[in-house]
Design brief:
The complex is a heterodimer of chains A (381) and B (160). Chain A is built from 13 helices and no strands. With 381 residues, chain A is mostly helical. Chain A has one domain: Ribonucleotide Reductase, subunit A (Orthogonal Bundle), CATH 1.10.620. The mean pLDDT of chain A is 93. Chain B is globular. Chain B has 160 residues and is of the alpha/beta class. The chains are: A mainly alpha (381), B alpha/beta (160). The interface between A and B is medium-sized, with 40 and 28 residues. The structure holds fe (ii) ion (2 copies). One fe (ii) ion (FE2) binds next to helix 8 of chain A.
Chain lengths: 381, 160
């Protein structure tokens, strides 16, 4: 118990007398009825969609008129409420709107809420447990699922870590991040469940990837965490989910990957809109983000190309371990890796960071990868 | 009544089937995207038919043939030869939904069969944000009374 009330209320005679007097006399104070707030009656703009956060963006409550610096509210007071003397200073660590905001964050939240799904009931488990996979495919798939479970656990922890550190005025962002925490917990759940239904269970954790995940978790600011988590890591995982759907052995697995893909793309969407917002409203951050990406890209290169991550892709995409299958798997995996990094740079460019290519070591690795593909005679577009 | 692919009537039939499956699509959640469909006619070098599909909330509010995509603000375009589209829809109709080789993501992933075109990566990512809704929309082809195909050699037998 680290935080104590300044009063012991039951020992405070005035407080106890007031309570009993009110109940005995029915004489009400009613000062709260004169709260200095806007009286509003918001309505849904589109009845089919319901009442959305955008419908609540009105003077006195909305996010559009929120100042860049949240100086007034240091408490849990909901944005728009009167903040009386005596509300505690919660010492939020992030009080600058451009550190957290994203274009359209309110609609990403609504989309997230309406597109929730259930890993227990929306995946055709009865069908999946009946699917017989060849030994090498099942082992490779179980290893991929082990890696994905590991990744999703940190993806749950990172937004959860930041949620309580943001000023309460950033309500829409906090709620969006809450949906992400739920999404990622569901992803960890669904991959764990699938691994434990293959007949093989979980395989090996990946030290190199865990180093990358620790780096993601320990970012110095929310914007740095978001750029590497939402945009870089989840962007690459999104390409990986597409690839996983592509190589999935059964229709049930395809559905599973489509469901996780939807959530992941939403997280990437938030990350892109956030980075755009940061670059537009807090340009001093540009260099800090570059510095953070310098290190992040190093981790990604080491983690994504580790043997326990890459080899299962080769076996799954080649559909086995015979020589010709491995050769085919190498080609498909190389094409996937190039696509993954190309999409990452494309997203950065769209967010307003086109110069990233020039200073990025990963871009040099991409050029190596493209040359390798050309030498293998693989068409990428 | 049988509908012909490619045609505005075909996509309108899918839109009507989507309205009939309102509860299923409501369960999948908000679906807000504008999708362009480009069908390259196999037997006529360079000829194409273009369609736009507009999805809002839980419905397909517009499904029609268009002369071009200018000013339609399409998020992405799914492009392929009529024979590839035909094979996909025949597969869907045989199985009651796409099998492992015929899901939209699988067909577009490396651009081998269908090509995914886009200007804006954010629009591109909408295919994934709404992946299951997009798939289930195309899977509704399995519920149509009958489909005939125009301008496409059959890649896979039998017709469905
Ligand atoms: Fe995830
Ligand atoms: Fe995610």
């Amino acid at each position: 118990m680290s935080y104590l009330s300044t009063k012991d209320f039951l020992a405070d005679k005035d407080f106890v007398d007031r309570w009993q007097y009110t109940l005995r006399s029915g004489e009400l104070d009613l000062s709260w009825m004169r709260a200095a707030t806007e009286q509003v009656e918001c309505k849904p703009q589109n009845a089919r969609r319901g009442l959305t956060f955008r419908d609540l963006d009105v003077p006195g409550y909305g996010y559009s008129t929120m100042p860049e610096l949240a100086r007034a509210n240091r408490s849990f007071a909901p944005r728009g409420a009167e903040i009386p003397e005596g509300c505690p200073d919660l010492q939020a660590e992030v009080n600058r709107k451009s550190e957290v905001w994203a274009y359209n964050v309110e609609s990403y939240y609504e989309e997230a809420m309406s597109r929730q799904w259930n890993a227990t009931t929306d995946v055709p488990w009865a069908e999946l447990v009946k699917a017989e996979l060849p030994d090498d495919i099942a082992r490779a798939y179980s290893q991929l699922l082990t890696f994905l479970t590991e990744v999703e656990m940190i993806a749950t922890d990172v937004p959860a870590k930041w949620m309580g550190r943001l000023n309460a005025d950033f309500f829409e962002v906090k709620n969006f991040i809450a949906t992400q925490v739920m999404d990622e917990a569901r992803h960890a759940e669904v991959f764990r469940k699938r691994a434990l239904t293959t007949g093989y269970g979980l395989m090996k954790a990946s030290p190199q990837n865990e180093l990358n995940l620790k780096f993601l978790r320990d970012a110095d600011s929310f914007s740095e965490a978001s750029t590497t988590l939402h945009l870089q890591a989840e962007g690459m995982i999104l390409t990986l989910f597409r690839f996983s759907e592509y190589i999935s052995p059964t229709e049930g697995d395809k559905k599973l990957f489509r469901l996780v893909m939807q959530d992941e793309a939403r997280h990437v969407g938030y990350g892109m809109q956030h980075l755009k917002w940061v670059l537009d409203h807090f340009p001093e951050k540009r260099e800090i983000i570059h510095k953070h990406l310098d290190e992040a890209e190093n981790f990604v290169f080491g983690g994504a190309y580790a043997v326990e991550v890459m080899e299962p892709f080769i076996i799954l995409s080649g559909k086995g371990m015979k020589k010709a299958q491995i050769e085919q798997g190498c080609k498909i995996t190389a094409a996937f890796q190039v696509k993954q990094v190309e999409e990452y740079f494309e997203r950065l460019e769209k967010c307003g960071l086109p110069e990233r290519k020039e200073r990025s070591q990963l871009y040099k690795a991409l050029e190596l990868g493209q040359a390798q593909l050309a030498a293998m005679g693989v068409r990428t577009h | 009544m049988s509908v012909t692919f490619p045609s505005g009537a075909f996509f309108q039939a899918l839109a009507a089937a989507m309205a009939g499956a309102h509860d299923r699509f409501r369960g999948l959640g908000f679906f807000d995207a504008t999708i362009g469909i480009r069908v390259l006619l196999d037997d006529d070098g360079g000829a194409e038919r273009l369609f736009v599909l507009v999805f809002e909330v839980f419905e397909c509010t517009r499904a029609e043939e268009v002369p071009d995509f200018t000013r339609l603000h399409v998020d992405f375009v799914l492009e392929g030869k009529t024979s590839v589209w035909r094979e996909m829809f025949e597969n869907i109709r045989r199985n009651g939904g796409a099998d492992v080789a015929h899901s939209i993501n699988t067909l577009t992933h490396f651009g081998e069969q269908l090509t995914l075109r886009y200007d804006d990566p954010d629009g591109h990512d909408k295919l994934y944000r709404f992946a299951e809704s997009v798939q289930q929309f195309f899977d509704l082809a399995a519920t149509l009374d009958g489909v005939t195909y125009e301008g496409a050699a059959r890649l896979a037998a039998p017709a469905a």
